[in-house]
Amino acid sequence: MPAEAEAFNALIDRIGVRASFAPKTAIFYEGNPAANIYKVVGGSVFTCKTLSDGRRQIVSFYLPGDCFGFECTEEHTLSAEVVSNAKVLAIKKSALAAAASRDAGIQRQILSLMASELARLQDRVLFLLKNAQERVGEFILDMEKRAAVGNYVGLPMLRHDIADYLGLTIETISRILTALEKYGAIEIMSRHGILIRNHSLLKNVMADQDKMSTFRSYLRKSTDENCRQVDRRRTRSQHRSAGDIRSTRRRLPWNDSAGVSEVRRSKQ
Prior knowledge:
The chain is α+β, with helices and mostly antiparallel strands. Helix content is 55%, strand content 22%. The protein is built from nine helices and ten strands.
């Protein structure tokens, strides 16, 4: 690590206030005063925007070492929420600005962080122009760069968090992940982890148009087969229900011919 970066991290550790947050806890809300910037020490955090129709759009995920909360205005334009148990450093902007005024190296580190955040947002705009398969594939590859141990990619966020980040439904993401697994590119280890079985295949499926067309065809077939299985299960369930009703009718006293004859004789 360059000396300037080490000095900057040492400064943040010295002037920052450490706090712990439980999952689903808000660190700040949209409209709160933007007096601090934040650094994730442990766990994970996301920033999000609540749209006018009530939907949530997750803008970015932040993992250990990432900084967030850079605002050019006096108020936060996004909200920040904890994904998994998180430890966060809160650094006063005023204290950081005072240190930067005395040290050109600190200035450069701040500019570098702000440039990285701007590049992240620019990539985000282009990312949302891609199709569903490309979004899921690129998300896996991005998380591989940031949270991989060997070929294992940790996903601390929930499926609905990923859906709100990718701008897709949970069902679409599940279908694509299942298709990628059957295609041989990944293996779904758990709700919070994926093993990349064939790194080049995963990249090629997303980049090669011919392979992308093949994958989409495979995905459609997989989806159609899932729908047929659901229909078959529904039909079997309906048949069982109808059989149960007929069986019940046969057992009811008023469907028993002997019983009916007995009732009629008693009335006579």
